[in-house]
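Suppose a colleague, Dr. K., hands you the sequence of a protein chain of 187 amino acids and asks what its three-dimensional shape might be. Before reaching for any lab equipment, you can write down a predicted structure in token form. Begin with the sequence itself:
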Amino acid sequence: MDESVRPAELVRELQDIVGSDRVLSDAYSLRLYSYDAGTDAAAADLVVIPEDGKQLAAVMAAAAKHGISLIPRGGGTGLSGGAIPCEGGMTISFARLRRIMSVEPEHLQARVEAGVVNLALGRAVTPLGLQFAPDPSSQAASTIGGNAAMNAGGPHTLAYGVTANHVLGVRLLLANGQVAELGGPAP
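The predicted structure, expressed as tokens, is then:
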């Protein structure tokens, strides 16, 4: 463990935020989070798995305070390397941020957390006669947040457009833990 990259104070702070079982720094865990569906790999210095938005904001604020770079990770199904921590830093897994907060069929809108799996959203809206059209081949594992970040999609995008055509707004956390809202529901 390189203390200049993972100071004990930061590790303790993160453990206080998310619990010691969700701050990973052993070689095996770091290896599991070192690659996506492409061919490249690089290990982070830490992996943190927050449970909700409040924990995520606190984790990001702690990383900013300690000057640690952040690498967001959804399902890790991308082919472009977006989830690979090429220069170390802290990987933040969105695996537990998978709540569908609301579905409003009358407005053709759903509010979801970044870790919601595409297929889960599709299954939630299908009984309402709706669909979430972006359908990457990894839709059983890929997440909405990752798809939005990489503008992913699959065969249905030829008819219905890529992810960017289906996202009305994003509420996101900046690297310092501050909230920013971009776009929003259609008027």
